[in-house]
Amino acid sequence: MAKKQETKKVEVEPQIETMVETVITEKPKARERVKPSNEWEIKDRVYYLKGNQKPLSRSIKAADIFYFDEEKGYERELKYCKNQTTSFVDEMKGDQRLEHIIFRAGSLFVPRNETVLQKLLSLYHPHKDQIYYEYKPAKLAEEEVDVLNMQVDALVAARNIDIDMAEAIMRVEKGSEVSNLSSKELKRDLLVFARNNPKLFLELADDENVMLRNFGIRAVEAGILRLSTDQRNFLWGSNGRKLMVIPFDEHPYTALAHWFKTDEGMEIYSNIEKRLNE
Description:
By secondary structure, this protein is α+β, with helices and mostly antiparallel strands. It has helices at residues 2-31, 115-124, 137-160, 163-174, 183-196, 198-205, 210-221, 252-259, 263-276, and strands at residues 45-49, 57-60, 65-69, 74-78, 101-104, 107-110, 132-134, 225-227, 233-236, 242-245. The strands form 4 sheets. It has a 3-stranded antiparallel β-sheet with strand order 6-1-7, with helices on one face.
């Protein structure tokens, strides 16, 4: 009898252990919860009028406005009623007590418990990002980071740029005044320009025509070329002979830069370059 009992124990114990392992493995999965990505965040929100003017009070439309609902496939009327739990008229129940939406000194603070007004202003109102905008610190920080990164890129490029390219870029900003600057002054002004206007600086640094435009301006300043008073022609400075006709509605020096790339223009470019280096 003892042998039979021992045999039963050997058979039963592995089955119990297997069942326990299965239960332990499955329990955490039953507790997992996935948070919806489009869940509305309950928090205080602030809205600001766009532009520099901040009137003492400014009302925006709280009724007779519409929102196109893509899921339903039609326009839905909106109305802000403080006694309702929605801003969609087709979902309202009972009396509709219309409320005003007023910005004071250019701003409107909406506390976290007024979600109906928040959703109307943040999601549905047709004047969002036209008359007013929602203040979003995270988005503002992201934009500031982009600007700072652009400034870094511009400053690094400005530091490594050669003096001829620096002159060409700064001539766009300062005009003929660049000719009177020393190399140190030019480098300083270039770095300041790159810091204050990084986007424009990077565009000019990547513009293949900026050097040719600067070359044309230098030729005019040296008297080798002359721009006609009506700004329709470039002439030789020595005898007034017509060199090229400027296409209609195009900047004279941009047209000259393009012309320098033609077969005829390349010969004239070499001629002018020799005279400038004399």
